[in-house]
Specification:
single chain, mainly alpha, transport, transmembrane helix, Carbohydrate ABC transporter permease
């Protein structure tokens, strides 16, 4: 029996390794292409290690060209970080309220909020655009931040983790005189920290990669995010694949850094959800 389990584990590990490498190949090709001269990018078979290194020139053109990548980075970091902080805060508070505070109509209100998750966001674009023009938030970073300040997914996800907290702990704290904000900050938040970190990383990635909202709600080039900048860069250099790959690598580096830093919390959040389930 033990030998059979060991063989099965080896087979599963081998399959997962092969799949992992297969998923990584496009990313590795992108990095390799960003380091090559143009004529070597589309050679067949693929030259994973460049014969002629051209990384300095490619990345210099990207960072010092017509698109100011340093400004694009700053805009994206500002919008993404503020959006993530706001969305996590709002989702944490809303999730705790729906999970641990009894009030009239709570379940109905949560059902209505959850039902909005089925509405495609594209159907709201015209209404949001007109509203933003009317209240003066069009072509501003504040408008982009507010668009994603409330997340139905974040509220639902964190609520499920809050439900896993034993109500006796909450009641004991209330008997000791603690209010809901004290319970929320001192008891609830530490217990669901991995889940909060997981959602924060997901929100960061979604906001950083967002192309649709900046495209519609930003007009001034000085306010462009990195995704709009890469798109504009592609309009000028779309036929030069080595430059496009260098621009793409530049755009995803922050995501890799955030994931490497937060992967431990992501794994803990997944494990916590698995144990709860």
């Amino acid at each position: 029996m033990t030998a059979s389990l060991d063989v099965r584990k080896i087979i599963i590990t081998a399959i997962m390794t092969i799949l992992g490498v297969a998923f990584l190949l496009p990313f590795l090709w992108m990095i390799s292409s960003s380091l090559k001269i143009e004529k070597e990018v589309l050679t067949f078979p693929i030259q994973w290690i460049p014969h002629t290194w051209n990384a300095i020139e490619n990345y210099t053109i990207v960072w010092t060209g017509s698109m100011p990548f340093l400004l694009l980075y700053w805009n994206s970091i500002k919008v993404t970080v503020l959006t993530t902080l706001t969305s996590v805060t709002v989702s944490c508070l809303a999730a705790y309220g729906f999970a641990k505070i009894n009030f009239k109509g709570r379940d109905l209100l949560f059902f209505i909020i959850l039902a909005t998750f089925m509405i495609p966001p594209q159907t709201l674009l015209v209404t949001q655009f007109l509203l933003y023009r009317w209240i003066g938030l069009y072509d501003t970073h504040l408008g982009l931040i507010l668009l994603n300040s409330f997340s139905v997914f974040g509220t639902f996800m964190l609520r499920q983790f809050y439900l896993g907290i034993n109500n006796e702990i909450i009641e004991s704290a209330r008997m000791d005189g603690a209010g809901h904000f004290r319970i929320f900050a001192s008891i609830a938040l530490p217990l669901v920290r991995p889940a909060i970190a997981t959602y924060a990383i997901l929100r960061f990635i979604w906001t950083w990669n967002d192309f649709q909202n900046p495209l519609i709600f930003l007009r001034t080039k000085a306010l462009y995010t990195i995704q709009l900048g890469v798109n504009s860069f592609a309009d000028e250099h779309g036929s030069v694949y080595s430059l496009m790959m260098a621009a793409s690598v530049s755009a995803i580096v922050p995501l890799l850094i955030i994931f490497i830093i937060g992967q431990k919390n992501v794994i803990e959040g997944i494990q916590l959800g698995g144990v709860k389930g």
